[in-house]
Amino acid sequence: MAQDTVSVSSDYPRNPNYPPLVLGSRNKKKKGELTALLAPLGFEIRDLSEYPEAIEVDETGTTFTENAHLKAAEQAKVLKMWVIGEDSGLEVEALDGRPGVYSARFAGEEHDDEKNNDRLLQELDGIPEEKRGARYVCHIALSDPDGNIRAEAENYCYGRIRTERCGTNGFGYDPLFEIVEYHKTFGELSPEIKACISHRACALREFSQKLLDLFGKTPEN
């Protein structure tokens, strides 16, 4: 079977039996995490920056699942492509699960990581270490071009919130989110370790298997 020469990266060609998958986001870091896992399987990952006709989907859901479905299905119907919708965020025990689906705009509509981290620290001021438990949540969904959800996965990563920022890796709340077993925040951990244990990485591994089940595993040539 002739190989499609569309390049996913410098190392991995796209499997011609798999359609291109569009991430319903312009976040290059999220696209990079998705590509790192799915490109070796033969999937080509694109993002909304390649589609001027892409719409802004209102995240009106009350759960990560609902928002992931909206991002996937509404965009897919416009682009007539297979679209991946991903919604993720932070749930803090002492805040009764907040910021939750409002994680990206906890401090306002600007989606400003620094301001969001500042607000989180303010709201947890005086809360002792043993009550600063938190978890990251990630839900990923795939819509076909008609807006039907065809595959999805959800996973979690548990930790606690530090009293000050540590590290410069990652994004979002990573400089505050400590993995207790490592005694380091996501902002301090290497990308390689994060790729093994993060909520998004774990959800993506489950999701990738569902993609292979959906589109069919093909033998290596």
Stated plainly, the CATH topology is called Maf protein
CATH architecture: Alpha-Beta Complex
Strand % is 15-25%
Number of helices: 5
Low-confidence stretches: 1-10
How many β-strand stretches? 7
- 3D shape: globular
Q: Span from first to last CA?
A: 7 Å
Mean pLDDT across all amino acids: 90
Count of structural domains? 1
Helix content, binned percent: 25-40%
Radius of gyration, in Å, reads 18 Å
Question: What is the string of helix and strand elements?
Answer: EHEHEHEEEEHH
Strand order of the largest sheet: 2-1-3-4-5-6-7
Tell me about the biggest sheet?
Answer: 7 strands, mixed
Structural class call reads: alpha/beta
The CATH first-level class comes to Alpha Beta
Question: Can you characterise this structure?
Answer:
By secondary structure, the protein is of the alpha/beta class. The protein has a single domain, classed as Alpha-Beta Complex (Maf protein), CATH 3.90.950. 28% of the residues lie in helices and 21% in strands. The chain contains five helices and seven strands. It has helices at residues 28-38, 64-79, 113-123, 191-197, 199-215, and strands at 21-23, 45-47, 82-92, 133-143, 149-161, 177-179, 184-185. It has a seven-stranded mixed beta sheet with strand order 2-1-3-4-5-6-7. Residues 1-10 have low confidence and may be disordered.
